[in-house]
Structures are given as C-alpha cells and as structure tokens.
Amino acid sequence: MEVRPPELPVELFYGILLQGARDFIQHSRASVVQLALVSREAYQLIRPILYDRLIVTKENEKLFTQPEVFDALLAHVRYMHIVDEEVSIDIGHELLQRWNPPPGSTCFLDASLHFTIKYISEHPDTPLNGVRIINMSFSRAVFAGPDGQRLPRAFLRNLTHLAGHLPADLAHMDGEWELEFLAETPALTHLALQVVDYEGFDSFDEVRLFSYGTALITRALLKHSTLKCLCLRMAGTLTCDTTISVFQDLVKELQDMRLKVWFDTRHGEHGNIFSWHDSEQRWNKIELQLEVHDSFAGYDIWMPEERPSTEGQVICYSPSSSVTI
Fold first, then answer.
1. pLDDT tens track of the chain, all 325 residues?
2. 128 near 107, Cβ under 8 Å?
3. Is pTM beyond 0.90 here?
4. 21 to each of 30, 42, 182, how far by Cα in Å?
5. Of 130, 147, 222, 318, which sees the most CB atoms within 10 A?
6. Is 231 helix (H, G, I), strand (E, B) or coil?
C-alpha cells in the first residue's frame, strides 16, 4: 500500500513560503525570485518583500522608463537608493515624482541632497522619515548644500533617521554645530555618521587629535534625549590601532548601549597611515561600489554588528562584557 505524506493546509504552506522569503531576501535574492514563481498566488504574497528595496543604478535605470512596469512596484517600495553619480537626473526625478508611500509606513531614501530636496518639495506631506544623504557633510551642509539648497526645517523637525558624513577637519570645528543640529532635529532617533579619511596623517599626535575630536562630538550627540542609536562608520586610515584604542576606551567609559562604532576594513590594508595617500576619485568609486553592495544585500546601516566579521571590527557596549566585537 502506497503511503502518501500528509498535505499541508494552504495557509500553512503560504506561511512557510512567506517566512522563507523574509529569511532569504538579504542573502539570496535569486532564491526569493524562484519562490515567487511557484504560482500566481505565491507571487502576490511575496511581491511586497521582493520589491521592498529599490536600488537604481546606471545598469538598471532604463527599466524605470516604462511607467506601466514600475508604477505597480513603487507601491511596495519602502527603501529607495538612487546612485546619483550614475543615474540620469530625469529618471531619478520621474521615480521620485511617482513614489508616494502610504501614510504610516516607515520609508527611507538614500540619495544625494539634490534628489532628497526634489522629493520633499514635490511631496510636502511625505511619510518619509529617514534619509541617507550621499556625499554630504554634517558640518553646515545638513542645512544648506554647496549650491545653496536647503533641507526644509519643517522636514527636519519630523525626521527620525539620518545618515551622512562628518568633515575630515572635524577636530578643528568650533563645536557649536552639534547644538544647532540637535535643535533642528528634535524627533531624531537614529543617526549614522561616516567618518572617513583617505589622505593620511603627519604624526601620531594628529591621529589622536582627530580621534579625540570625533569622540567629543560623539559625547555631545549622545545628549540628545530622543536618540536611540548612534552608529559611527570609521574607514580609510581611521581603521588604525590608535583610533580603535580611543573608541574602545570611550565605549567602556560611557557604557551607553546606543553607541556603535564600526571600523570598516573593506578598503583593504593601508600599511603606514602616514604615507597612505589615495586619489579622491578612486576612493569615491570604491565607496560607491560598497554603498550599492550594501543596498542590494539589505544591510541595516544601524546594525553593523550583524555584518560578517570579514568586513571589519564593531565595538559596542554590552552589560555582560565591556565591549563586544
């Protein structure tokens, strides 16, 4: 007599399918596509997960010149990354004009200051509550870019997630910008700062000055009462032992679980930090490649501790131990 395995209820089968899509989307997008092709019903179920993230690059931008194709997808998009240095301005503008997420959704735009302001100006009631502004310094440009463009203050007041760059000369800043920044963003809960140097240092004293300057800014920002997460990404020559030591001590001293410091070593070994001088053009190209890779992989910018250990060292406070790596 033939013994047949019991059939699963349809609801349970689709539940397993949905959970599988959620588990695989960050590491194997192709596997999620295969799941979506199981049936029409499976595709309808998995589509919101499959199209949750939209990364627009030079290679795929022509796909978005057909409104009948991408209009149906944009309704599911909650994270949009426009690689502005490669993407056509016209295509970027068209996408932003048509992207209008429903109220109450948590949405994140990863783009240049130009595209960010363009989107906000055309969608004054946007539910957008998170932005990562490419190639923008936090010193003063968070309020105005090089060409005079500004992030609207009404938008800043409701902003909860923000990411951008700290200037390379932050050790020489007056320190008043932190207070201005915190006053402009009263609802901010998540802040990620890129702290990058690719030019090298003249002495160990200069390395320490840079590190301690960043540490002072970190202390000031952690006074923000609504801040739930402050993540620093240190890259380039700042992955040296001197900088790591400064922030290990800082994390131990502050004992603040909101602070995470990620020393990103994906640029490779740099040898002597006093003689490593890279071209800005080459550096920006590598940074762009890493940003696109992270977007497609679905990495959370606020959770560096979930990345593979081959991508660097993460220092954060844990009650069970002084630091976790």
1. 455 556 767 777 778 877 777 777 766 777 888 888 888 888 888 888 888 888 888 888 887 777 776 777 787 888 888 886 678 888 888 888 788 776 666 678 887 777 777 777 777 766 665 666 654 545 444 555 556 666 777 778 878 888 877 765 554 555 566 777 778 888 888 888 888 776 666 777 777 888 888 888 888 889 888 899 999 998 887 888 888 998 999 999 999 999 999 999 887 654 444 444 555 667 777 777 887 788 777 777 778 888 888 888 899 987 765 555 5
2. yes
3. no
4. 10, 10, 39
5. 130
6. strand
